[in-house]
Amino acid sequence: MIQEHKLIERAQEGDHEAFCLLARSYQRRIYALALHYTRDPHEAEDLSQEVWLKAYRAIGGFRGEAGFYTWLRRITVNTFLNHQREMKTMYSSGKKAFRLGELVSLDELGMTPAEPRQAPEERLQQQMMVEKVMEGLSELTAQQRLIFLLKHREGMTYEEIAQSCAVSTGTVKKALFRAVNRLREFLGVKLSPPNSALDEVSYAARERR
Amino acid sequence: MSMHDCMKTRERMVDLVFDELGPEARRLALMEIEGCHDCLAEYRSMAETLRVFDQAAETAMPEESYWLGYEARLRDRLRHEPPNWKLRLANWLGGFRPLTARPLQLAVGLALVLLAIGWWNWRHGQAVGTPPIANNIANPTPAPRSKVDLRDEDIAKKSEFPPPGGALGKGKKFVVPPSGGRVGEPQRPAEAGTTNIVRREERGGGIVENDDVVSRVYDQSLIAASLFTPETIKHFEKAQLMLRSFRNASAAKSPSAADVAYEKQLSRRLLYQNILLRRDAEMKGNLPAEEALSSLEPFLLDIANLPDKPSGNELGGIRERLQRKELIAALQISSARPSTPTYQNP
Question: By the 8 A CB rule, do B260 and B247 touch?
């Protein structure tokens, strides 16, 4: 397997193929972020590919002072923030919800959810859960959504997020609290008392490690 | 041990869920949560929410076959993407990577080169002199005094130039090598027909340092030769002679005695030649020559268009302007040909 820095060097010399190989390593992460941010698979593809194009244009300036993914993530966040501004201009109001119909259309695009061998009922149930998650995310502002994704999916620190999004760490904390509450509300997670305590409590931390 | 405060604990719950606490703070927070039924329920539900979210996120991700199409579409977009500027610059420079690999250094280098060119141009501009006439007057040629050229002496005095054959140094001989000159005409170093020996002298106790003047004159001659074509220099010579002649003729006391018919005729010929030379200089971008010719042209035009019997005012007007602009002296310098000055021991 070709090392990442070799691919970067080749991409800096204008080698499309090397850049595509680089993109292959991270395209799922970038796409997942874009999907949860936009809540639309088509838009997610456009936005994630825009990230790659921007990265391609800027790769000449990549000096390797930070990791490639850190550098790429900075481009991603900036692209998302720009997208957010554009969307604000285009639609001054109105929130977009992820519809089940769009999930169905994923089949046509070959974007059927993972584990296609699942029973239809189970698959439908999962699709409904995705729909709820997307609805929950649509209840958040674009900034709150981005902050939540950067924290939960990317594991960035409060400070890193605050710096990236040009907000205070207090805003970051508030956005996370609100995001979790909204999602809990939409996913219908109940406040049930546990039978056993700490073995399940540290789930989130364990997951990230 | 401090009392448990549910509100405070819940404020810190986000930090706990998103793993923002250090190991010790985390242990303490978990201990506190475990001790409170409500807080534990809250924490568990938050953790569960994130778990469900992760599950849904996995489900929403497209299957493997989608990524082939995704990559193909990306490749297609990249194909339409122009190469970045560094790459274009590298290609333009024939693939010389080291230059483009250090854009800052390249920019600094270019800036230095531009500065050097600018400085050279500035120096060159100063040496050549714009406007040329003004500069020429500042460093006039050491023209020997002639009977018809007394007025030029004033100009020479103004520019701190010793009167020809006048205030010179201590008996040293300044030898200007021979060049073509005319009898009865003021001799320029460039066209002196015979060896022109100028003796340095003391006058009124003041010693005039002539070496510097000589070198300046020599520089001026060189500059003139480098700027003007031989044809232009010859033209300047003719114009200078004509203007001197005009000045002397127009200086006659009675207007009736001022016969400038010959100067008029000569001026017409010179005017035609002047226009041609000016256009040529303009075409070649020779700004000093163009400016010198442009400053001469109005005088040629005015003299050429004088009536058959010009009034004293008309002649006086042109003469006055000639003096004011110090054109004759400027032409004298412009038409000087370079010659190597040599020194002879006394």
Answer: no
Contact residues on chain A for B60, CB-CB shorter than 8 A: 32, 35-36, 103, 113, 130, 133-134
Which stretch, A78-87, A116-125, B138-147, has highest mean pLDDT? A78-87
CB contact (8 A) between residue B49 and residue A183: yes
* Cβ <8 Å between A191 and B42: yes
Residue B175 reports pLDDT greater than 80: no
Asked if B74 reaches chain A (Cβ–Cβ under 8 Å), the answer is yes
Q: Are B181 and B155 in contact (CB under 8 A)?
A: no
Summarize the confidence of residues B261-278 as an average pLDDT: 88
Torsion of CA A68, A74, A76, A80, to 10 degrees: 180
The maximal CA–CA distance of chain A, rounded, in angstroms, is 59
Phi, psi dihedrals of residue B209, rounded to the nearest 5°: -75, 105
Q: What are the tens digits of pLDDT across the range B188-213? A: 444 444 334 344 444 444 444 445 55
Q: How far is A131 from chain B (nearest CA, A)?
A: 9
- β-bridge partners, B173: B199, B344
- Report pLDDT for A192: 57
CATH numbers and ranges of domains, chain A: 1-95 (1.10.1740.10)
The model's pTM is 0.49
pLDDT value, residue B89:
66
Helices then strands (H, E): number in chain B? 15, 3
The pLDDT assigned to B55 comes to 86
Q: Compute the C-alpha angle B72/B77/B81, nearest 5°.
A: 145
The Cα B292–Cα B147 span in angstroms is 26
pLDDT mean over A118-147 = 84
Query: Domain ranges in chain B?
Result: 6-59, 86-128, 134-344
Taking the C-alpha atoms of residue B70 and residue B73, their distance in angstroms, rounded to an integer, is 5
